[in-house]
Fold:
Amino acid sequence: MKLLENMVKQDGKVYPNNVLKVDSFINHQIDPKLMMEMAKSLYEYFKDKNITKVLTIESSGIAPAILVANLFNVPMLFAKKSVPSTLKRNSFYETKVHSYTKNVTNNIIVSKDFLHSKDNVLIIDDFLANGRAAMGLVDLIEKAGASVVGVGILIEKSFQEGRKLLDKNNIDVCSLCRISSLENGKVEFNKADDILKK
Ligand code: 5GP
Structure:
């Protein structure tokens, strides 16, 4: 998606360990118009898939996920990184996810009340790096006996393992912008960056 690539080129900042900061338009301050355009592109890609729920992980996935869910006219559910005191034991699905940027492992949970075996679930997240967050969400969906329709990502770092891992698991991934390298602080994009091509 050209609009997103241009924003990444203009305002993205490369940090050590291949971390890209996009705090001025996605991760801290949010550009609502760009976010809406991104949501529309993800909707276009998955619109024929009979989606009944959009799932993400707190917190950065929430903004794109809620806009995508609104376009599908379905609820958006986000996995929590801590168990609220009001949730009883055995009333939630749980899995472990290692955070790429924070280097910690969290137990992530969703309430059994909101994910059901009949759900066709679209996963949305801001970044795809090693695929731990996405695979954790896939695990929660499978624990509920629901179906994974695919994964919609704003920024994929294609040089990391996540895309390969999702492809290996036959999961349909749509990434709006694919980065081939962040070497020497420079952002390089994959050549064939077309949201309808992988
Ligand atoms: P993964 O689980 O695929 O390794 O990493 C994806 C998660 O880590 C995303 O939910 C995102 O919040 C965070 N993340 C991974 N790489 C980056 C990055 O380069 N920049 C930012 N801002 N977040 C990242």
Summary: The beta strands are 13-15, 19-21, 53-57, 76-79, 92-98, 105-111, 120-128, 147-157, 173-181, 188-189.
